[in-house]
Amino acid sequence: MTPSSNKAHRSRTSLRALLVALLGVGVLSACQPEPTPLTVDLVGDSITMQAHWNRDSEFRRAGVGLASKYDLVVDAWLGNKFQDVQKAQSARVFDSKRPRPSVLVIALGLNNADPYYGGGGWTKEDETAFKKLLNTPHPSSCVVVVLPAAGKGAPQQYRDHAVFASARMKTFASQRPRTVMVDWAPVIKAHPEYLRADGKHLADNKLAKPDQMANPVPADAYASLIWSGVAKCPPPPSK
User: Fold this and answer.
1) Which residue, 58, 84, 129, 142, is most buried by CB atoms nearer than 10 A?
2) Are 100 and 92 in contact (CB under 8 A)?
3) Percentage of the chain with pLDDT > 90?
4) Model-level pTM?
5) Which residues are bridge partners to 202 per DSSP?
6) Greatest CA separation for the chain
7) pLDDT tens across 78-127, in order?
8) Strand 142-147 vs strand 103-107: parallel, antiparallel, or unpaired?
């Protein structure tokens, strides 16, 4: 290899290294397609599932004057962790025909830290998974983070996890522009009756319909909290 070709090879190698580094920190956001306007993706766990299950109309009505504007996708299931929704959310973000969302709502609670689901408290791995999901949408998208909480019926260890995990989520969410946080803790502190005796899940002893999973009042309260975060999202940046 001649000196000139060797220099060119080093230049190409350096350029590739720079591109990889820029992609790693999200600088090359232009590689991501612009999200379809007025699209909301809600990724959640059992609490989101309770609030929405067989209550789609009621869930949307909780977003008074707002929900009708949005195309809503709800991706929620029992025990969902950040890693469980990552693949599907990435696919929606990079969909070549209809990339989305313009708003991502992360309402995944504490399953990453819950010993019941294999968690051993909030760990560095949980932080990595949360940050990856948080930064998956296009930079122009708004992200709403629902901060988790637990009631008095939950074990003390679980409540401690809730406080610590919420604080860490706040730290990372505050570092991403166009991110909104809403907190479940003040709601259940004011209304402990919204929860089951386990201090985790929505009360379900007075269902409006037998095929639903939560009482109407706590389900609407959780849905309203989510929509309040969407309402606080800044308008799309001007082009």
Assistant:
1) 142
2) yes
3) 72
4) 0.86
5) 195
6) 81
7) 999 999 999 999 999 999 999 999 999 999 988 877 766 666 678 899 99
8) parallel
Q: Where are the alpha helices (DSSP H) in the chain?
A: 3-24, 46-52, 56-61, 82-93, 124-134, 156-173, 185-190, 216-231
* Cα of 96 vs its chain's centroid, Å: 22
> Considering only CA atoms, which of 16, 37, 40, 20 is closest in space to residue 28?
20
CATH fold for domain 33-231: Rossmann fold (3.40.50)
Contact 110, 157 (CB under 8 A): no
> What is the distance between the alpha carbons of residues 123 and 237, in angstroms, rounded to a whole number?
34
- The residue ranges of the chain whose pLDDT is under 50 are 3-13, 15-28
Terminal-to-terminal C-alpha distance of the chain: 47
Residue 15 pLDDT: 47
Q: Count each helix (H run) and each strand (E run) in the chain, helices first.
A: 8, 5
Q: CB-based contacts of 85: which residues, under 8 Å, 6+ apart?
A: 43, 75, 108, 133
pLDDT digits (tens, 9 = 90+) for 48-61: 999 999 999 999 99
Q: Which residues of 122-141 are buried (b: 16+ CB within 10 A; e: fewer)?
A: beeebbebbbebbbbbbebb
| Cis amide prior to 33 (ω within 30 degrees) | no
Long-range CB pairs of 8-15 (<8 Å, 24+ gap) are none
Cα–Cα nearest to 101, from 239, 238, 236 = 236
Contacts of 156 (CB under 8 A, 6+ apart): none
| Residue 181, beta-bridge partner list | 145
